[in-house]
Amino acid sequence: MDLPVMPPVRPMLAKSAAALPPGMLYEPKWDGFRAIVFRDGDEVEIGSRSGKPLTRYFPELVGALREQLPGRCVLDGEIVIAADGRLDFDALLERIHPADSRVRHLAEVTPASFVAFDLLALDGASLLDTPQRARREALVRALRDADALVRLTPATDDLDVAREWFEQFEGAGLDGVVAKPHDLPYQPGARAMVKVKHERTADCVVAGLRPHKSGPVLGSMLLGLYDAGGRLQHVGVCASFPMARRRALMEELAPLRMESVEGHPWQAWASEEAQAAARLPGGPSRWTGKKDLSWVPLRPERVLEVAYDHMQGDRFRHTAQFRRWRPDRTPDSCTYAQLEEPVSYDLAQVLGGSGTTG
């Protein structure tokens, strides 16, 4: 492979904001695997955000990219899988599997798509220093004949349209809007764009913790919600604290520590059968295939309020953010019923018009 921009490339990132800034190019924020695609003739490589190759996990995309992309190019985008009119991140996670036969079976029954939103190189020229507006125009031309598994993300210059997208597209599984300055060059690894994501709050039970990798301070708190059958389901973690706060929280939670997992709602966490039947901590990682054994059971007596962006099935899609303790709430009042359900929106309508509007 001989391209003007060679792998690995760290994708350009976005910093969070409370509202969309005016005067920019706006695109939906996709919820999938970020990917940089390199094509040089018959050679196709798909790199992840970390630079590791994703190529073997998406064989159906390799063929589609080879057929539908220009002969020599580098694109930035997102790998997604759709099911029932919305994005399905769980189906993506299933692709990270060591068995090639399993990957190829899933490629047939749940094919992925690549949604492109930037062009880093075309033919023999690097576009890294080219302004965003010109890169978008070149991307639209480059993908004018693409269809099926290779798609062009919608984009608009109209702030009012972007605000409508922010409200509507969540129902299709997207998690916000990205804003890009028109004169922005492509800056690998830099948080040079702006993202606005949905934020909601929920009251959760603290039912466990994981120590921090650096020592005997808090790494994360394990969160639970009660389902309709009265079972405490593991829904995610709350993390991202300054080191002093981690030490203080470890001391604060010490009185709740249990000597063993016996009697804890998640005491069967080590059983594969139990893992298949309920949401429990310590399950196998899709990335490593190993179980995380390093969690400490806590008596499920304390409630905290966390902020989250959206749900992935029955759990938080991303790490939740601590907001406050809720001594006024009882653990049994922390149920799924409190969670807001976004209005459904068909993913096909998101991709229906992929050119720039406004």
Automatic annotation (TrEMBL):
<dbReference type="GO" id="GO:0006281">
    <property type="term" value="P:DNA repair"/>
</dbReference>
<dbReference type="InterPro" id="IPR044117">
    <property type="entry name" value="OBF_LigC-like"/>
</dbReference>
<dbReference type="InterPro" id="IPR016059">
    <property type="entry name" value="DNA_ligase_ATP-dep_CS"/>
</dbReference>
<dbReference type="Pfam" id="PF01068">
    <property type="entry name" value="DNA_ligase_A_M"/>
</dbReference>
<keyword id="KW-0436">Ligase</keyword>
<dbReference type="InterPro" id="IPR012309">
    <property type="entry name" value="DNA_ligase_ATP-dep_C"/>
</dbReference>
<dbReference type="InterPro" id="IPR012310">
    <property type="entry name" value="DNA_ligase_ATP-dep_cent"/>
</dbReference>
<dbReference type="InterPro" id="IPR012340">
    <property type="entry name" value="NA-bd_OB-fold"/>
</dbReference>
<dbReference type="InterPro" id="IPR050191">
    <property type="entry name" value="ATP-dep_DNA_ligase"/>
</dbReference>
<comment type="similarity">
    <text>Belongs to the ATP-dependent DNA ligase family.</text>
</comment>
<dbReference type="GO" id="GO:0006310">
    <property type="term" value="P:DNA recombination"/>
</dbReference>
<protein>
    <recommendedName>
        <fullName>DNA ligase (ATP)</fullName>
        <ecNumber>6.5.1.1</ecNumber>
    </recommendedName>
</protein>
<dbReference type="GO" id="GO:0005524">
    <property type="term" value="F:ATP binding"/>
</dbReference>
<feature type="domain" description="ATP-dependent DNA ligase family profile">
    <location>
        <begin position="114"/>
        <end position="247"/>
    </location>
</feature>
<dbReference type="InterPro" id="IPR044119">
    <property type="entry name" value="Adenylation_LigC-like"/>
</dbReference>
<dbReference type="GO" id="GO:0003910">
    <property type="term" value="F:DNA ligase (ATP) activity"/>
</dbReference>
<dbReference type="Pfam" id="PF04679">
    <property type="entry name" value="DNA_ligase_A_C"/>
</dbReference>
